[in-house]
Fold each of these.
Amino acid sequence: MELKRLLICLILWVQIQGNNGCFEEERLALLQFKASLESDEYGSKFPILLSWNDEPENNCCEWERVSCNSTVAHVIHLSLDNIWNYNETEYNLDQNIYDLKVSSFQHFKELRSLHLSLNNFGGFVDKEGILVLYLNSPYL
């Protein structure tokens, strides 16, 4: 009976306190991913992912293109398709290939959905644990 009361109190406390934001490891991984795109000569010309900034009080679960589990605040969905808002006539498939590293997504333990199309990404994505990996584009 005592354990039951303790669990009820814990659940109530968590609900009252709410979620204080995303996990620091995931927030830093998102910022590192953005920085890797901006460090490229082409990528630095266009502002991308403006809500992704390094303010300490900034909750990455509220950033554009990021969805988190409402209970534990792990990133579960990244919608990173067409980051630069290209239209198909702006593509030059011989240039602007960004090398996508597996390590870009290893910090997201609960990631279930990843959309990467229309970015000219090259490289390999380890899809272990990801339920939806959207790569449906000749411009991946």
Amino acid sequence: MTEQQGDAPDALKAPNDAMMQWWSQQWLQGVTPMARMQLAWMESLAEAMQFEAQCLHALAESGQRLSVCMSSETPANPQDIQECYQQLMHHVTRTHMQRLEKVAELSEDFRNRIWEEI
């Protein structure tokens, strides 16, 4: 009798392994698309954060240039200050427009990534 009991677990092992293998394949097929969609979302988020960091860097540079224009040792005439300010505003405006263009592209890229994963 003890021999028959020893054979029972071995007899059940093969069907259990096959069932576990089938179940793990089904589970992975269901999880993989969601993981890919999450990866696409995270990549888009990382790009958006990079664009925002570039914009903030440009704004910081403009603020630094403005402080240099305003804090010169010799009093500057109004035309020089106005010219410096106009250049800085042009730079900030151009940076903001580039930011808006990238945001529009990012939305389209995100849609394309999601569509590819579906």
Amino acid sequence: MKIVFALLFLVAVAIALPIEDESESQLANENEFLNLEPIEQHHRERRATCNLPIGARTACNAHCQAKKYKRGYCNNKKICVCTNK
């Protein structure tokens, strides 16, 4: 009975051993095939809601109400500020 238990234990250990992750090597091959280059720079545009010449306050207010705030206004730095007041 001890031998059967030892064999079952060895089989369980053999099954539980980690196998090499093939997805990393596949991704490396895919990047070489597609000639992909890593993005070095991230550029994020600021919202232009308060920079509009006409209707900036209305656009800012609508933007804030869409985000479930009561109102919104443009501050002196032309940034839309949402409030619940």
Amino acid sequence: SFQDAKKTRPRPEGSRPERGERPVSAERPARDERPSRPASIGRPAQGERSGRPARTYSDRPATGERSGRPQYDRPASGERPAYGDRPARGERGDRERPAYGDRPSRPSRSDSDRSGSHRFGSDRPNSDRPYSDRPKTDRPGSERPASDRAGSERAGRYERSSGERPGRPARSFDDRPRQSERSSRPVIPSVVHDALAAIQVTADSAEGLQFGDLGLGSRIVDTIRELGAATPFALQAATIPVALTGRDVLGRGRTGSGKTIAFAAPLVERLLQMSKNGVKRAIGRAPRALILAPTRELALQIDRTVQPIARSVGLFTTQVYGGVPLGRQIGALERGVDIVIGTPGRIEDLIARRKLDVSQVMISVVDEADHMSELGFIEPLQRILSATAPEGQRLLFSATLDAGVSNIVREFLRDPAVFEVAGENQESSTIDHQVWVVDQRDKRDMVIELARKGGKTLMFARTRAFAEELADMVDDEGIPAVSLHGDLNQARRQRNLDKLTSGRVNVLVATDVAARGIHVDDIDTVVQVDPPDDHKSYVHRSGRTGRAGKKGTVITLTTRARARRLMDLMKTAGISVEPRAMRPSDVRAFEAV
């Protein structure tokens, strides 16, 4: 068969046997039957492999038996030459150095002989630039042809040699005018407080007038009379008729001149007229009037005047300020109010929470406008006024109306009427201004002596800690005294202010937070223990006394080092006073009034 023939076929030498041709394991010789390796390989037995002696560490010579290391002929340290044995600079070597005069001269450097080969290592001639197709002009200047232009073409040209220039006079420092001969220049102060142009109104203009003659309703007039204002002041007589027409108004009057009634009465009267003209009042209605004040105390004082006038004609008010929980204020707004009185911070907070809608506010009032125009108030004030009705009326009142208010006037007021009471400057006869120059170590004794004079005394300190310290010091002397500053919560601030108003204490020590908004009519003396920082603060501090035509005294304590600065500040405020040196013993003889 084919398989048998395949098995009997001879296999070529070196070829791999077929699977069936491999011998079975039983046919393979056993391991012991394998022939021994031929002796021709000559591999020695394990013990006979190497004649190299076994390594041992004991055959190294001992340390003392080692041969000395060669020194490479290096001289010993004692054989080296000393520094003094070195040859001098001129005696070194026999090399001949060329003298400076033997060097070849270097060619002079010139910009005209610089070429590209010198600068960039190129051997290209400077004249063979491919981008220049102009012919070379390698002729000297003497071979150039003369100009063919006629001489008349140069006739109109003026040629001047250097020698024809007029000689400049030598500079002299003696030709400057002497200081006494110089023309007088206007002195420009570093800070300019320009007062806005205002219509001057006098006290005579209000003589014989009644509030009913100004266009106010009978209910409003009766309420104002109950508040203690029988006849209008000059500022009220000037601003109320104009405000009733809907025109924007700016009013300047010192504290106690009736600014609150000047804007509260026409505001309520105008809202009443709007209600009669078809503006319906409903639950949850948005306010139509907004009064902004810088401090909580001033907002509460304004509300004590505005609320009775508004209630007399059926209008409602609410106060919105910080330091108290939001719940009651939000509840009043949800019930619906006509007039909102508050500070910019809390008003912005309620607007952001969508609890207060000022888009329907038609009358906006800014009290203490000079303070509201300062840093920290101006930006919130601008945002709030921008959110009110653009066609609304704006009324601004303050004790001072200077250039700081001009930004608000230009942005929000349209053709405002500006009023200022003539003759009602800070040198009014109702307030006696005094400046006492004292030693710093006597200031506390001076405060105690002034507190013992009797009458209601309002003292101002720069910091909260110092105000608290002065109040405790005066109280320890047996004189009832309390403090008023920003660290107190609203309830305690109002409680301390009520103690002064009711007469339970005679001394109130406050910071500038109390300079605006303290409405106490019978304060006899204002003591500025720390002088104010600017003329506006002085005006508002001193305005706490001499209210409503009453007499008052303002005493400012200062050291000799700060006296000049204080006098400049008072001059800016329009006050002229002669400082006097005082000691605590001199206070007993001082007549407060």
